[in-house]
């Protein structure tokens, strides 16, 4: 068993947090041990796409395919974080971040998805975590944020069962390399996107459009998560008290009306968006209604092998929750607006990302929207957290992504003012505070994103960052929201509304 890295001593203990409070000054104060952070993903920021042994992932292939990404953008350079990580960590420290959630590029450390790791690739993540720890920032590692090695996709990708087995082996390699430095681990980021956008609607890599394959991918992603949990438990130092999790982009689904048809549409989307993951991971079963709805697309008895559900339901310590906007659905009435579904907001496709529920219609609710055309509704986050808290009160939660894209620009004074983002984050933090006050065990909040980056099918046309990136010069400019967030972290509190 590896000794704990000396810089990793004194890490936070996972324990129930004290309740938040609302002080006389009107501030909503968070628990004293609340973990404030920001998040990124490897392909979106690292660049260095062909350096130090890295081979193409499915996103390299996808982005280099004409017509897949707006303006023909790729992640070849992105925010050049691979070369600028020390400056970026210094920037994080200047903002007072307590934690940083990053992902590991699978093809950077295991180019074929099989066999031994490439030490040059592992060394980058060793250097990054050491830099974070030296700056007093807790590293939070995500093993997979959508960048499957292309060689594994050529062998069948996530619809193939073997990919789950390869993922478990990869998890062990990363755990052995970073286990003395990293305490917080996430197996998969948003497997819904990997399965349904990658293999259903095709608006994400690898761009396949087969609803049956999308469901097979969902199961094998679940299985890969279980294999990774087992692998990490076997190699991580017990003295580090590792905290293992998966991050889900859970959908808060609302029916357009109280009609039986609309309520059933919401049930279908809830099954495909939420319970397809929560069921096997937390309750050791796939929901019966999901299996019935999709029986014409996949043979569940053949897909789910004996022992799969036991593996998938290996205990986790935390559940990561990503939230941006709720979904409003009906049973095929009214004027649809697919852009309200986060799936379709990532690209345009004639194929549905909802296998077996193609007749369900998504609607745009009234109110403000972000530059992604996603509705701004913090009540959806509150309702989602209270639902999970009620269904699984024993499981601590972490907001692992929340944020918004707006049309940011550098003004003549060299500043980037983004009051809309401040208002968005403030209102969602207030919703998190309310959920905690009602007894939901939420341990932290990670802003998406630390910096502007490659926004998948939108290329560089959408900016989510608290830090502005001038891609031509790679200059970083903290936006007004970054300064506001730093003050929020310092106070460990937020005002419910703008003073």
TrEMBL record:
GO terms for molecular function: beta-glucosidase activity; transferase activity. It catalyses: Hydrolysis of terminal, non-reducing beta-D-glucosyl residues with release of beta-D-glucose. InterPro entries: GH (IPR017853), GH_1_N_CS (IPR033132), Glyco_hydro_1 (IPR001360), Glyco_hydro_1_beta-glucosidase (IPR017736). The keyword Transferase applies. Keywords: Carbohydrate metabolism, Cellulose degradation, Glycosidase, Hydrolase, Polysaccharide degradation, Transferase. It is an enzyme of class 3 (hydrolase). Coiled coil: none annotated. It holds the Pfam family Glyco_hydro_1. It comes from the Bacteria. The keyword Hydrolase applies. Its EC number is 3.2.1.21. SUPFAM superfamilies: (Trans)glycosidases. Belongs to the glycosyl hydrolase 1 family. NCBIfam families: BGL (TIGR03356). This is Beta-glucosidase. It comes from Streptacidiphilus alkalitolerans.
């Amino acid at each position: 068993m590896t000794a704990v890295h000396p810089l990793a001593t004194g890490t936070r203990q996972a324990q129930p947090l004290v309740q938040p409070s609302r002080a006389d000054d009107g501030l909503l104060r968070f628990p004293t041990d609340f973990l404030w952070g920001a998040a990124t993903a490897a392909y979106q920021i690292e660049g260095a796409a062909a350096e130090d042994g890295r081979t193409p992932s499915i996103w390299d292939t996808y982005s280099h395919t004409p017509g897949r990404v707006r303006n023909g953008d790729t992640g070849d350079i992105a925010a050049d974080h691979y070369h600028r990580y020390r400056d970026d960590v210094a920037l994080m420290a200047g903002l007072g971040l307590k934690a940083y959630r990053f992902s590991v590029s699978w093809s950077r450390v295991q180019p074929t998805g099989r066999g031994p790791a490439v030490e040059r690739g592992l060394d980058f993540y060793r250097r990054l975590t050491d830099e974070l720890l030296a700056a007093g920032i807790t590293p939070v590692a995500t093993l997979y944020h959508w960048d499957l090695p292309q060689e594994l996709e050529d062998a069948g990708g996530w619809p193939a069962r073997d990919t789950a087995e390869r993922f478990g082996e990869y998890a062990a390699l990363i755990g052995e390399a970073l286990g003395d430095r990293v305490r917080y681990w996430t197996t998969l980021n948003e497997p819904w996107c990997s399965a349904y956008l990658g293999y259903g609607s095709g608006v994400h890599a690898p761009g396949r459009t087969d609803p049956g394959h999308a469901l097979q991918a969902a199961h094998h992603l679940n299985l890969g998560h279980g294999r990774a949990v087992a692998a990490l438990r076997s190699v991580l130092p017990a003295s580090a008290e590792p905290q293992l999790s998966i991050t889900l982009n859970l959908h808060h689904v609302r029916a357009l009306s109280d009609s039986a048809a609309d309520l059933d549409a919401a049930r279908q989307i809830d099954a495909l968006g939420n319970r397809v993951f929560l069921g096997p991971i937390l309750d050791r079963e796939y929901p019966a209604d999901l299996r019935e709805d999709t029986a014409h697309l996949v043979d569940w008895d053949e897909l789910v092998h004996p022992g799969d559900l036991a593996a998938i339901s290996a205990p986790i310590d935390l559940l990561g929750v990503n939230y941006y906007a709720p979904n409003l659905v009906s049973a095929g009435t009214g004027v649809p607006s697919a852009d309200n579904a986060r799936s379709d907001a990532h690209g345009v496709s004639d194929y549905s990302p909802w296998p077996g529920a193609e007749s369900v219609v998504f609607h745009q609710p009234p109110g403000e929207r972000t530059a992604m055309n996603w509705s701004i509704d913090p009540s959806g986050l509150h309702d989602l957290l209270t639902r999970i808290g009620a269904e699984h009160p024993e499981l601590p939660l972490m907001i692992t992504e929340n944020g918004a894209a707006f049309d940011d620009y550098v003004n003549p004074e060299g500043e980037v003012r983004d009051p809309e983002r401040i208002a968005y984050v403030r209102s969602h933090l207030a919703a998190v505070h309310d959920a905690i006050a009602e007894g939901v065990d939420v341990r932290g909040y990670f802003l998406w994103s630390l910096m502007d980056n490659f926004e998948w099918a939108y290329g560089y046309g959408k900016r989510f960052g608290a830090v502005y990136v001038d891609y031509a010069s790679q200059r970083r400019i903290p936006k007004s929201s970054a300064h506001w967030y730093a003050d929020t972290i310092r106070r460990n509190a937020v005002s419910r509304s703008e003073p």
